[in-house]
Amino acid sequence: MTQSELLSDAIALLKDLIATPSISREEDAAAQVFENQLKAYELKYERKGNNIWCLSPKWEEGKPTLLLNAHIDTVKPVASWTRNPFEPTLEDDILYGLGSNDCGGGLVTLLQVYRYFQEHESPYNLIYLASAEEEVSGANGISCVLPLLPKIDVAIVGEPTNMQPAVAEKGLMVIDMTSHGKSGHAARNEGVNAIYEMLEDLTWIRNYQFKKESEFLGATKMTVTMINAGTQHNVIPDECKAVIDVRTNEYYKNEFLFEFLRKHLHSDVKARSFRLHSSHIDINHPLIQKCISMGKKPFGSPTLSDQALMPFPSFKMGPGESSRSHSANEFIRISEMQRAIEEYIQLIGLSS
After folding, report:
1. Residue 51 near residue 299, CB atoms below 8 Å
2. Is the Cβ–Cβ distance between 137 and 304 less than 8 Å?
3. What is the pLDDT of residues 290-340, one digit of tens each?
4. What does the CA dihedral 226, 227, 232, 236 come to, rounded to 10 degrees?
5. Quick one: 104 exposed, middle or buried, by C-beta within 10 A (0-12, 13-18, 19+)?
6. Which residues pair with 229 in a beta bridge?
7. Is the pLDDT of residue 77 over 90?
8. Beta strand pairing call for 299-301 and 166-169
9. What is the pairing mode between strands 331-333 and 239-248?
10. How far is residue 247 CA from its own chain's centroid?
């Protein structure tokens, strides 16, 4: 297979996937499209739910294992689309459609690169995984597949990064905070106002700065993004609820931060999950050093991906731009996909 043929196959598959709605937790039809294509390629695969993966038939003991991963699901289309989000439209170099950029381009180009290395040598044993429920960090996504795979040494996640290596990614922890008061009649200044009970905590969250800053991710940040209290204008609220969005760098584990916040806040706090940790890979890892030798610039990514659920070194690198994700009239450039295939092959191959 030539790289031109691989690109043609990637475009055709991406068009089929765009035309098949695959909103998170509703990926069944798209996963079937993907499975049918693997059969047509005569690739051996396994499937659990809507996750599909392939292990290289050229497996060699002693080689490190490289996971090639991208997700099959999309967000719901926003209301401001002026095109049909499920109609793949190719205009010159641009392919429009929901999921084309996030992360259809990475999904289909990494698959073609996996196919390429069925005929060519690589220093890695390769696993290709098309995962589900990435956009919602769902339990039926990558986390249910990883225990079924051989030991993985490193992963490339095909999120849109303009083919630059994101060597670190911020983690996420969402915390529900509740303060309590006592209801009463506002006109008689009765009761204890739960809003006022939370004010000190809100001020502390706004002003506190974590000391350990990351070279690629900067500081860990907390932001109060939602607040709700009261039932009507003349009743002192007896409960105030707020939501804290916490974005962590690699120096702070979610569990540690939660205990730290619990000790410093007067309000009750409850974490929705601890599982979405910050992730990073050593800048001296051979794949990152090879990226640098190819003229690429490592950076830190503020957006979350399935990397957060990977207990091994990983980095994001894929065609497209992160700024196009989750936006109206989403698109990927064919030239970006072509470049991705070329550069993935150069990165993963034996040549220096």
Report:
1. no
2. yes
3. 999 999 999 999 889 999 999 999 999 999 999 999 999 999 999 999 999
4. 180
5. buried
6. 240
7. yes
8. parallel
9. unpaired
10. 14
What kind and span of H or E run contains 53? strand 51-55
**Beta-strand relationship, 89-91 and 51-55:** unpaired
Residue 214 corresponds to which amino acid? Answer: S
Which neighbouring-strand residues pair with 170? none
Token pair 């795979």 is at which residue?
149
Beta-sheet pairing, 279-280 with 166-169: antiparallel
Structure tokens belonging to residue 299: 């950076």
E-state strands within the chain: 46-48, 51-55, 65-71, 89-91, 94-96, 125-131, 154-157, 166-169, 171-180, 221-229, 239-248, 268-271, 279-280, 299-301, 314-316, 331-333
Lookup: tokens for 313: 């070194």
The Cα 197–Cα 36 span in angstroms is: 58
Handedness of CA 68, 312, 215, 326 (dihedral sign): positive
CA separation for the pair 80, 326 (Å, rounded)? 11
The residue written with tokens 């974590």 in the block is 210
Does residue 85 contact residue 77 with C-beta atoms inside 8 Å?
yes
Task: Report the distance separating Cα 298 and Cα 315, nearest Å.
Answer: 10
Q: Could you write out the DSSP letters of every residue in 64-78? A: -EEEEEEE--BPPPP
DSSP secondary structure, 186-201, as one string: GGGT-SB-HHHHHHHH
CB–CB of 193/181 below 8 Å?
A: yes
Give the pair of three-digit tokens for residue 324. 């196009």
Report the alpha-carbon distance of residue 267 to residue 316 in Å, rounded: 37
Q: Mark out the alpha helices in 117-251 (DSSP H runs).
A: 194-207
- Side-chain-side CA neighbours of 253 within 13 Å: the count stands at 4
Residue whose tokens read 């991406």 = 14
Residue 224: strand, helix, or coil: strand
Query: Phi and psi (nearest 5°) for 338?
Result: -60, -45
Question: In whole angstroms, what is the distance from residue 295 CA to residue 203 CA?
Answer: 44
Q: Which residue has the tokens 């109609």?
A: 87
pTM for the model:
0.91
The answer to whether 298 and 216 are in contact (CB under 8 A) is yes
Q: Are 138 and 50 in contact (CB under 8 A)?
A: no
In the predicted structure, residue 198 carries a pLDDT above the cut 70 = yes
